[in-house]
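Q: Given only this backbone (175 positions), what sequence would you predict?
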């Protein structure tokens, strides 16, 4: 910063009423003598600490948010143990398919809807339910709906309060 810029800052401080005329003259003389005036030193010190304070606050906020999310997410994943197993759902799908109750694709959709309704009733977040279901055997079979179709069903199921068994029947019949 040039001497002229620093004198200009002093003038602004004087005009704003932060410095008296006598203080302005004293600081201007110091500046012209090669010393940095006290108000400018203080302003530079404050300015240099601001980025550090912002960084510390950012770390605290993001770190706290991450820990809260991790705790919430872990609790949701632990609840998935209460859901009907893939093996049980797949067994029901095979039995219904053998009995020719409905097309295989529709039976899979019904099972996926059932899984989402169970997860909803167990208090599992929709985000975790989608991840759990799309990583399951329910979407692995080529005859099953793909993962995107399965994810799309979640919001519809979560918006209703229909019991899992009824929602499965509805999805199979609607298919």
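A: Predicted residues:
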């Amino acid at each position: 910063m040039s001497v002229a810029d620093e004198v200009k800052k002093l003038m602004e401080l004087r005009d704003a009423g932060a410095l008296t005329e006598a203080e302005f003259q004293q600081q201007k003389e110091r500046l012209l003598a090669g010393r940095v005036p006290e108000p400018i030193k203080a302003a530079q010190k404050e300015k240099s600490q601001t980025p550090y304070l912002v960084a510390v606050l950012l770390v605290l906020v993001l770190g706290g948010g991450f820990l809260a999310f991790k705790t919430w997410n872990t609790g949701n994943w632990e609840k998935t143990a209460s859901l009907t197993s893939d093996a049980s759902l797949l067994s029901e799908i095979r039995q219904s398919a053998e009995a020719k109750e409905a097309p295989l694709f529709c039976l899979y959709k019904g099972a996926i809807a059932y899984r989402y309704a169970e997860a909803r009733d167990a208090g599992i977040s929709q985000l975790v339910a989608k991840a759990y279901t799309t990583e399951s055997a329910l979407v692995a079979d080529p005859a099953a709906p793909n993962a995107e179709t399965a994810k799309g069903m979640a919001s519809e199921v979560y918006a209703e309060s229909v019991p899992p068994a009824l929602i499965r029947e509805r999805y199979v019949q609607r298919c």
